[in-house]
Every structure is written in structure tokens, then in C-alpha cells.
Amino acid sequence: MKNVTIHKAKEWSVRYHNNRSLMMRRLFKSNIFGAIIMAPFFISMFFMEHFWFWLTFSFYILLFGILLIILGFVSRMQKIESSIKRLLTRIVVTITGIGLVIFFTLVFSSGFLDIPAYLSKDYKVIRGKPDYISSIHSKSVFQTIEINNISLKSVYIIPEDNSFIEYKAYYLPNSKYVIKLFEIN
Q1: Which parts of the chain sit beneath pLDDT 50?
Q2: Could you give the maximum distance between any two Cα atoms of the chain, in Å?
Q3: In angstroms, what CA-CA distances link 180 with 14, 60, 148, 170?
Q4: pLDDT of 11
């Protein structure tokens, strides 16, 4: 009786794990799972003028880079029949991943250092007339404004000919991300 119970328990355990792994494989292959994972990235692309969406976007850039590096080293890419194409694909994927991680480090990493300052509302304040106002491009969300030799990233659009108006800007210390911008009369 005891051997039968142990055998049934092992059989149930094997069946349970097989069903569970089958369920996980189906979940990862489904488009819904990908859509749920990618939704914050796509949403953050449209609201980068808010600090948290900017951080979410940058975090996904880092994750994509790490994922591509792992895929470049680990994936066998068996669907690619030619060994030369397979090797070149692995090299390109790895280099792209490294490029994304470097891009994150250079462009977005300072934003993560600003999280404590953002949560405690420990903003730096600068007041003055802009020395430089960058032109507005459709490809960029930010406009660079230089006040008192400090270059700031602003989502507040200032016309280029407004360099004679005095502004007061609240910004984060590391990333120079402008939180609030006011005209001073």
C-alpha cells in the first residue's frame, strides 16, 4: 500500500510539473504576455515629460541591452542554418546589447541617482535669463536651456527668441531634469 501511494505521488508530481512547464511555455509564446511586459515601455514613450515615465523608458533600455547581451552569448540560434550567419547574428546582437547598456549609462543613469532627490523634493533652484535655448525638434522631447552656465533638460517649451525673459527653474541635481519652470515678471 505504501509503495503504491509513493508511486502515485511521484506520478502526480511529474504530471504537475509537466503541465506547469507546458503552461509556462504557452504563456511565454503568447502575444498577451509580451504585450503586458511591453506595455509600460510603450506607454512611457508617450509621456516622457514626466520623470517616472522617463525613468521607466530608460530602465527598459537597460533591460533590452542586458537581454540582448544574454541572447548573444547563450542563444544557439538554431533556426539560422548557416553557421557564418549564426555567428554574425550573435556578434551583432551582442554588440547592440552592449551599445544599449552604454547608451543607458551615458544618457539615463543620472536619472536613477536623482530618485532620492525627487522623492524628498530636494530640487535645486536656479534663476536667471537663458544664455542658450536649443531649437525644438520633433525627434526630441527635451529642450536644452542653459541658465548661468548650467545646462538643463526641460520638457517646458520656451521659444528661442525668449532669451530676454528671466526664469526660475527647479531641477534635479544629477540629471539636470527640470521639474518646474516659471517666468519671472
Answers
A1: 12, 14
A2: 92
A3: 59, 26, 17, 5
A4: 56
